[in-house]
Design a protein that fits this description.
- It is a single chain.
- The chain contains one helix and no strands.
- It is mainly α.
- The longest helix is centred in the middle third of the chain and has 84 residues.
């Protein structure tokens, strides 16, 4: 009788351990999934920010180049004007 009880108790404990390990495995998988989703979301946001920064930088560089060209044109016109005065 005691042997049967011990066998049943051991089986119950083994089953409980397997169920606990399964539950822990599922929890770990869920945590990893959530971590991956958060990392992917952060990566997407960083990419969007970098794209925005690059667009703004390109626009500013284009404006700067346009201003530099205008200044060079005015400088050349002024040099020509001074040359004609002399």
């Amino acid at each position: 009788m005691l042997k049967n009880y011990l066998k049943t108790r051991y089986a119950d404990l083994a089953l409980a351990r397997v169920e606990s390990e399964k539950r822990n495995s599922l929890i770990k998988a869920w945590e990893e999934n959530e971590k991956t989703k958060a990392e992917n979301k952060a990566t997407k946001k960083v990419s969007a920010i970098l794209s925005w920064e690059n667009t703004k930088k390109a626009n500013i560089e284009a404006q700067l180049k346009k201003i530099e060209e205008q200044l060079e044109k005015k400088k050349a016109e002024y040099a020509e004007k001074m040359k004609n005065k002399a």
